[in-house]
Design goal:
Blueprint (H helix, E strand, L loop, with lengths): L2 H32 L3 H14 L3 H23 L9 H32 L8 H36 L1
Helix pairs in contact: 1-3, 1-4, 1-5, 2-5, 3-4, 4-5
Length: 163
């Protein structure tokens, strides 16, 4: 296997894993938390947000974009050598979708909401209303993360087929 094939496979697997994590939150975790008492849902999400910050998640969350960028750079540099001229461009498209879908949205939209949620006392007056707003806004942005990471995965898969 060539370096570009290894990098493309890594980008595809990592972005697929991120799409899966975000997708499961959108279709299962958040709806489940919305079915319990607001205090319990809020408390559970605080724990989830605390536990997700672990080395394994950070390797996938930060490592996948780095691998994708390396694949895109190599793909563009070696466009003429690849099986199809559009492979490099698919790697660039996948990288952009991944960076916007995972890193940018997480940093700009989800993390600030998580930080605000962490500061709440689940039993305090007003926390239930804050939780409902969080659920709506955070989940909307999470849907975007899942879709964009899935599209990135598709780009990497298409690029792999053209190599």
């Amino acid at each position: 296997m060539s370096a570009i094939q290894v990098l493309t496979a890594g980008a595809a697997v990592g972005s697929g894993l991120l799409a899966g994590v975000y997708g499961i939150f959108s279709i299962a975790v958040m709806p489940a938390l919305d079915r319990v008492a607001p205090e319990n849902g809020l408390r559970a999400m605080q724990q989830i947000n605390d536990r997700i910050q672990n080395p394994l998640f950070f390797v996938v969350f930060m490592g996948t974009p780095l691998v994708a960028i390396a694949a895109a750079a190599l793909g563009m540099a070696r466009r003429a050598e690849l099986g199809s001229p559009w492979v490099g461009w698919m790697l660039v498209a996948g990288s952009v979708l991944l960076i916007v879908g995972s890193l940018a949205i997480t940093i700009v939209a989800n993390v600030p909401r998580n930080d605000a949620l962490a500061a709440l006392d689940p039993a305090a007056a007003g926390s239930a209303a804050a939780w409902k707003t969080y659920m709506t806004d955070w989940t909307r942005w999470n849907h975007a993360r899942a879709v964009l990471c899935l599209l990135a995965t598709a780009c990497f898969a298409v690029a792999a087929l053209g190599e």
